[in-house]
C-alpha cells in the first residue's frame, strides 16, 4: 500500500522549486551541514555519514550502506534508520534552494527488506514550494541506481530562521557550530537566510 496524505499534496498556488544560482554544480558533493549531525556529520562516530551529491534541478543522490549497527530484525536494517537516511537525503535538498528548513512531516513506505551490507541508492528531489512549505520526495533502491525500490518517502519541510536553532538548541553546540572553522559548513548552517 502506498500514497500521499492530503497534508503532503502541494496546494494549487504552489510553484516549482528554483535552484539557487550559487548551489553546488551537478555532481558536486554537498558536504555535511553540521559535523555532529547523525545523518551526515563527519565528526559523529555513531552517524550514518550520508554524503549527498547535487543533481540536476533541485535534486540530490546519496548512497547509504547498512552496517551491523543499523539492524532491527536480525540481519535487516531498522526501519527508523532507513527513515533517517531518507530524512537526511530530503533535508540536504534545502542547500540547493539556500533555505534553512526542518522536517514537518515525513511519510515513509517500506517496500522491501534491506539486508545488512546492502548499499541503498538514494535519490531525492523538491517537487513544489508554497511560501515556507517545501514539498519533496525520495526513493532508496537496492543494488544500484536502477535497482528495485526498497523505501520511499514524501515530506514537507518548513522554512525556519536561524533563531529556530538558537532558541531551541543547546548553547554549547550552537556556539561550537558558529565557531566552526569550516566556512562552507558554517554558511550552510547559519548564513543562508539571515
Ligand atoms: C546548529 C546547526 C544549524 C543547522 C541548520 C540546518 C538544519 C537542517 C537540519 C536537517 C536535519 C534533517 C531534517 C530533520 O531531521 S529536522 C528535525 C526534525 N524536525 C523538527 O524538529 C521540527 C519540529 N517542528 C517545528 O519546529 C514546527 O512544528 C515547524 C517549524 C515545522 C512549524 O512550525 P511554525 O510555527 O514555524 O509554522 P506553522 O505551524 O505556522 O506551519 C507553517 C505551515 O506548515 C504547515 N505544517 C507545519 N507542520 C506540518 C505538518 N506536520 N504536516 C502538515 N503541514 C504542516 C502548517 O499547516 C502551515 O501551513 P499554512 O497554514 O501556512 O498553509
From TrEMBL:
Subcellular location: Cell projection, Ruffle membrane; Cytoplasm; Membrane
CDD domains named in the record: PaaI_thioesterase (cd03443)
Stretches that traverse the bilayer: none
GO annotation, biological process: fatty acid metabolic process
GO cellular component terms attached to this protein's record: cytoplasm; membrane
Catalysed reactions listed for this entry: octanoyl-CoA + H2O = octanoate + CoA + H(+); hexadecanoyl-CoA + H2O = hexadecanoate + CoA + H(+); dodecanoyl-CoA + H2O = dodecanoate + CoA + H(+); (9Z)-octadecenoyl-CoA + H2O = (9Z)-octadecenoate + CoA + H(+)
Entry's EC annotation: 3.1.2.2
Topology of this chain in the membrane: Peripheral membrane protein
Coiled coil regions in record: none
UniProt keyword ATP-binding, yes or no: no
Sorted UniProt keywords: Apoptosis, Cell membrane, Cell projection, Cytoplasm, Fatty acid metabolism, Hydrolase, Lipid metabolism, Membrane, Transit peptide
Stated family: Belongs to the THEM4/THEM5 thioesterase family.
PANTHER family to which the protein is assigned, alphabetical: ACYL-COENZYME A THIOESTERASE THEM4
UniProt protein name: Acyl-coenzyme A thioesterase THEM4
Organism: Streptomyces echinoruber
Amino acid at each position: 500500500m502506498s500514497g500521499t496524505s492530503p497534508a503532503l499534496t502541494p496546494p494549487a498556488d504552489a510553484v516549482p522549486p528554483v535552484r539557487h544560482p550559487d548551489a553546488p554544480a551537478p555532481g558536486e558533493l554537498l558536504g555535511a551541514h553540521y559535523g555532529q549531525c547523525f545523518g551526515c556529520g563527519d565528526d559523529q562516530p555513531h552517524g550514518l555519514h550520508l554524503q549527498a551529491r547535487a543533481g540536476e534541478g533541485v535534486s540530490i543522490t546519496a548512497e547509504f550502506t547498512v552496517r551491523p549497527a543499523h539492524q532491527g530484525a536480525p540481519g535487516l536494517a531498522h526501519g527508523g534508520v532507513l527513515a533517517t537516511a531518507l530524512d537526511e537525503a530530503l533535508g540536504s535538498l534545502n542547500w540547493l534552494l539556500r533555505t534553512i528548513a526542518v522536517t514537518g512531516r515525513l511519510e515513509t513506505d517500506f517496500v522491501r527488506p534491506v539486508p545488512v551490507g546492502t548499499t541503498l541508492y538514494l535519490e531525492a528531489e523538491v517537487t513544489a514550494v508554497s511560501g515556507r512549505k517545501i514539498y519533496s520526495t525520495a526513493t532508496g533502491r537496492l543494488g544500484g541506481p536502477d535497482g528495485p525500490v526498497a523505501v520511499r518517502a514524501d515530506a514537507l519541510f518548513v522554512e525556519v530562521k536561524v533563531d529556530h536553532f538558537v532558541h531551541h538548541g543547546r548553547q554549547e553546540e550552537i556556539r561550537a557550530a558558529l565557531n566552526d572553522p569550516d566556512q562552507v559548513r558554517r554558511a550552510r548552517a547559519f548564513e543562508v537566510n539571515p
